[in-house]
Write a structure and sequence with these properties.
single chain, alpha+beta, 5 strands, 29% helix, elongated, binds flavin-adenine dinucleotide
């Protein structure tokens, strides 16, 4: 079985190894090593095992968020500013301190910032970087918006429960 430079099992976009009837899922295939990516890998492999039609593979996998559990948590999805610039994207930025979020004040978890990039022509969200208490929860909302082509205005105008960190979308996206 063919291995990569770091000893990982080499796979094609269908997660098939160099041995036709053997697939590799999860960490062992290299690439992003997260529990939820290992889980998602089965969505690529299962239809093949069942002989079902599927266009889901590593190339059609949509954006997924990541979280680094420092304090506060750093979570991101899609483009950050550097990547957007390098990709020649036109973008507007909304940024605010976590200290402006009521729940953060209540819990005295006020350090960090929230940042979202929006394409001003389509109103679609290009990416977000949250360095914040509960960033790892909030980022899933943004990933959903990106993958489902939900306008930033829908998040801006959403009616959120209070007190929550996600209600910060009202104020943050007002800045676009
Ligand atoms: C310290 C740490 C913190 C992490 N934190 C996060 C996090 O917060 N969020 C996140 O999404 N991911 C996190 N990860 C990554 C996550 O744990 C992995 O991406 C995930 O477990 C990969 O799942 P897997 O099924 O591919 O492999 P594993 O979970 O490693 O499972 C592989 C299994 O195969 C078994 N095995 C190995 N060799 C053999 C053999 N020869 N025969 C039979 N069985 C064998 C192993 O014992 C193991 O049970 C973390 C990883 C580490 C190390």
């Amino acid at each position: 079985m063919a291995l990569g430079a770091r000893g990982e099992i080499k796979v094609n976009k269908h997660l098939q190894s160099s041995v036709e009837h053997i697939w590799a899922v999860g960490d062992v295939k290299g690439g992003p090593q997260f529990t939820y990516i290992s889980l998602d890998d089965y969505r690529i492999v299962l239809p093949q095992l069942l002989g079902e039609e599927s266009n889901y593979n590593l190339e059609t996998r949509r954006v997924y968020p990541t979280a680094t559990f420092v304090d506060p948590t750093f979570a991101r999805v899609g483009f950050n500013e550097k990547e957007a610039t390098e990709a020649g994207k036109n973008y507007k930025v909304a940024k605010m301190p976590v200290a402006a979020v009521p729940k953060a004040q209540v819990l005295r978890e006020t350090s960090g910032f929230l940042k979202i990039l929006v394409d001003p022509e389509t109103d679609l969200i290009l990416g977000a970087s949250f360095f914040s208490y509960e960033a790892h929860e909030m980022i899933n909302l943004i990933a959903l918006a990106i993958n489902e082509n939900i306008s930033y205005k829908s998040l801006r105008d959403g009616i959120y429960t209070h007190p929550t960190m996600s209600e910060s979308m009202n104020d943050l996206l007002e800045m676009i």
